[in-house]
Amino acid sequence: MATQTENNNIQPIHETTIYAEPVFHVGNFQITNSLLNSWLAVLVIIVFCLALRLKLKQIPSKIQHVFEILLEGALSLCDQVTNDRKITLKIFPIVTSLFIFILVNNWLGLLPIVGSVGYFANEAGHSVFIPLFRAGTADINTTLALSIAIVVASNVFGIIAIGAWKIFNKYVNIKALGGIATKFRKDKNVLIVAPITFFVGILELIGEMAKVASLSFRLFGNVFAGEVLLASMGAIFLYLLPTPFLFLEVFIGLIQALIFSLLAAVYFTIAAQDHEEHGEEDHEKRLAHV
Amino acid sequence: MQEFIDTFHIDWKLMIAQLINFGIVFLVFYLLAAKPLRKLMQDRGDLISKGVDDAKKNDAMLKATKAEYDEMLVKARVESNKIFQEGQKDLEQLKAETMEKIKKDTDEWQKNRIKQIEIDKNIIVESVKEDIVSLATLAANKIMDEKNK
């Protein structure tokens, strides 16, 4: 293909784009290189889980022992975030599967076939190299989808844990406004505190959107920056120079997966806590002291 | 917003596809790895704690049995000692009684024997006397006969 392009005297464009390139289409639906890599990641995870399931024994083998240690470690890490074993057991499967999905996607993006195996396509008169694979998390669609899912799921978890009314009041604090009428005689300060509390609720709502943005862009930014870094190092000197950066990317892939899943655990935990209850308790304690 | 969507090529279909991917990973991980592995670990933990509990119970039972055994051993020793003492006492008594009886019997036998000997002696003496008389008579007759001749 390269010879063909040289014959045509057209310099092929080979650059890392900020978006995932479509590789082929199925009807209206475009299959991007990121989606292909994600499917590969899903396949790898299915094979691993199936192999583990088939080899599970009461007396564990060495591999099962390693998995058991990892599972215990993950549970204990989750416990440190939630401080409640019941919540840990409820959110553990979703948080851990999130970690595995992101980790495998991150690491599959570091394979030699990613970014180097592809084809040349003609776009607007230029020959453009389209890689067949791209890290699943180097596409904002993946990270955005995961972030939205986590934020929505954490709120649903909150509704199940403490009730829809309390979650609604967390964002649109009607209770605080209603408190003006009921608590005004006892405490005049409620005139100032209630609108501020209501405004804090609105900020919480904006905060949920910020969570989506921060989660998705942090992961996407780190993985995409890693790809760019590796491509740049490869462009400077292809042999040995990218190796230390490759190790760095392996580490970053792990750290980013861990950060994403731990933040998800934090969001789930926060959503399951009834802040109002604690606030009222504190307020009553303060009044008792007075 | 449109600029953002165009720059990053945001496509809701791709987002749904990635969510489906994650959903598959979640289900596979939960059903094939996390749930069975946790159940297995839980079962093993239960088995181990049951084993530890059983061992503790057995240990307590062993200690109780040993204490009971020791107590019974002491009791048995006391009992056997008592039985031995009583036996010895009975034996002494029996011995004394037997000795006394033997002595009594011997004395009686001796008395009877002496009596019998006395009777026999008297009989013998009487017999000897009779014999002597008869012999004397016989001798006297003989002497008389010779004189008469």
UniProtKB/TrEMBL annotation, chain A:
The keyword Protein transport does not apply. Its main location: membrane. It is found in: Cell membrane; Membrane. GO terms for molecular function: proton-transporting ATP synthase activity, rotational mechanism. It comes from the Bacteria. One of its GO terms (cellular component) is plasma membrane. Keywords: ATP synthesis, Cell membrane, CF(0), Hydrogen ion transport, Ion transport, Membrane, Transmembrane, Transmembrane helix, Transport. InterPro entries: ATP_syn_F0_a_bact/chloroplast, ATP_synth_F0_asu, ATP_synth_F0_asu_AS, F0_ATP_A_sf. One of its GO terms (biological process) is proton motive force-driven plasma membrane ATP synthesis. The chain crosses the membrane at residues 36-54, 94-120, 140-168, 189-207, 219-241, 248-270. Signal peptide: none annotated. It is a multi-pass membrane protein. Key component of the proton channel; it plays a direct role in the translocation of protons across the membrane. Belongs to the ATPase A chain family. This is ATP synthase subunit a. It comes from Candidatus Nomurabacteria bacterium RIFCSPLOWO2_01_FULL_42_17. The gene is atpB.
TrEMBL record, chain B:
It holds the Pfam family ATP-synt_B. Belongs to the ATPase B chain family. Keywords: ATP synthesis, Cell membrane, CF(0), Hydrogen ion transport, Ion transport, Membrane, Transmembrane, Transmembrane helix, Transport. InterPro entries: ATP_synth_b/b'su_bac/chlpt (IPR002146), ATP_synthase_B_chain (IPR050059). The gene is atpF. It is found in: Cell membrane; Endomembrane system. It comes from the Bacteria. The keyword Ribonucleoprotein does not apply. Component of the F(0) channel, it forms part of the peripheral stalk, linking F(1) to F(0). GO terms for molecular function: proton-transporting ATP synthase activity, rotational mechanism; proton-transporting ATPase activity, rotational mechanism. F-type ATPases have 2 components, F(1) - the catalytic core - and F(0) - the membrane proton channel. F(1) has five subunits: alpha(3), beta(3), gamma(1), delta(1), epsilon(1). F(0) has three main subunits: a(1), b(2) and c(10-14). The alpha and beta chains form an alternating ring which encloses part of the gamma chain. F(1) is attached to F(0) by a central stalk formed by the gamma and epsilon chains, while a peripheral stalk is formed by the delta and b chains. The chain crosses the membrane at residues 12-34. It is a single-pass membrane protein. This is ATP synthase subunit b. The lineage of its organism: Bacteria, Candidatus Nomuraibacteriota. GO terms for cellular component: endomembrane system; plasma membrane; proton-transporting ATP synthase complex.
